[in-house]
Amino acid sequence: METATLEKKIAQLPENLKLKAECYIDALLAEAKNATVSHPGEINNQRGYGSLKGKIWMSEDFNHTPVDFRDYL
User: Fold this and answer.
1) pLDDT tens across 22-66, in order?
2) Does the predicted model carry a pTM greater than 0.85?
């Protein structure tokens, strides 16, 4: 879309919607600043080794056989 076309469409909006459009554009600019996209549809993966440390845990009785299954062993 060309800038002139966008400007014409914005000029036709009432003042309250122009303010909403401005807020939306600011949000889009902030989002574009934070996310680096190398190809369309591909967002840079910012996870690294150890990023889930402390968030995953196993219960103390993980290796114990559940009571309901003891009859089958």
Assistant:
1) 999 998 888 888 765 555 555 555 677 888 888 888 888 888 888
2) no
Contact 37, 44 (CB under 8 A): yes
Specify the amino acid at residue 73. L
Tokens of 58: 């196993």
DSSP secondary-structure letter at 14? Answer: -
Q: Which two tokens stand for residue 60?
A: 């103390």
With beta carbons less than 8 A apart as the criterion, state whether 10 and 18 touch. yes
Q: What is the 3-state secondary structure (H, E, C) of 22-73?
A: HHHHHHHHHHHHHCCEEECCEECCCCCCCCCCCCCCCCCCCCCCCHHHHHHC
Residue 43 forms beta bridges with which residues?
Answer: 37
